[in-house]
Amino acid sequence: MAKLRHIAITVPDPQKAAAFYMRVFGMKKVGETDWINARGVYLSDGTINLALLNYKTEQAAGEWRGRDYVGIHHFGFWVDDVAATRKAMEAAGGRYWMGEPVEGGGFYEVKYRDPDGVVVDITANGWIGAVKDAAGPVSKRSSRPAAHKKRPDRTSQTRD
Q1: Is-above-0.70 flag for pTM?
Q2: What is the rounded CA–CA span in Å between residue 27 and residue 155?
Q3: CA 19 to CA 15: how far, in whole Å?
Q4: 6: closest CA among 140, 94, 115, 126?
Q5: From CA 10, how far away is CA 67, in angstroms rounded?
Q6: Which of 3, 11, 115, 140 could crosslink 93 through cysteines, CB 3.0-4.6 Å?
Q7: DSSP secondary structure of the chain
Q8: Whole-angstrom Cα distance, residue 81 to residue 93?
Q9: Is domain 3-123 given the CATH code 3.40.50.2300 in the classification?
């Protein structure tokens, strides 16, 4: 089964937004990016990757939204089979936008728009700070710097 493990929010100031989410929710900073399309900060709660991004180009932001848009930009599923998922997306009315798998296991996202225009990423390599299965290892597949910590065993803990 595919796992929701990535949410990207477009923000005016990624550092300021990161400080908020770290302070309020205890999220950990696992990386930063500054490349031709965007600058941003990557946070994690130990399971999911939260990207706080400020897009530099209209094309990267999505021309239907523009660079000034603030809010959820896209979310991503960590899948077992990208080719099969692409076929399923297209059969269900999804439309390819951009991105292709990278040879050699590097970071990538294949972006689609769902039938309502919402951007959905798929990847078989995961995101920095995310884990595919809650008991699994944290993804280290990224060219971005990261600090990874082993998750504590929570099987013996009770919920409040």
Answers
A1: no
A2: 21
A3: 6
A4: 126
A5: 9
A6: 115
A7: --EEEEEEEE-S-HHHHHHHHHHHH--EEEEEEE-SSEEEEEEESSS-EEEEEEESSHHHH-TTT-TT--EEEEEEEE-S-HHHHHHHHHHTT-EEEE--PPTTS----EEEE-TTS-EEEEESS--TT-BSSTTSPBP---SS-----PPPP-TT----
A8: 18
A9: no
- Going from N- to C-terminal start, the domains of the chain cover 3-123
Return the residue matching tokens 């939204």. 65
The greatest distance separating any two alpha carbons of the chain, rounded to the nearest whole angstrom, comes to 49
Least confident of 25-29, 52-56, 103-107: 103-107
| Chain centroid offset of residue 101 CA | 15
Tell me what pLDDT residue 123 has: 92
Question: Cα Rg for the chain, rounded, in angstroms?
Answer: 16
Q: Give Cβ neighbours of residue 145 (< 8 Å, ≥ 6 apart).
A: 31, 32
For residue 108, give both structure tokens.
């990538």
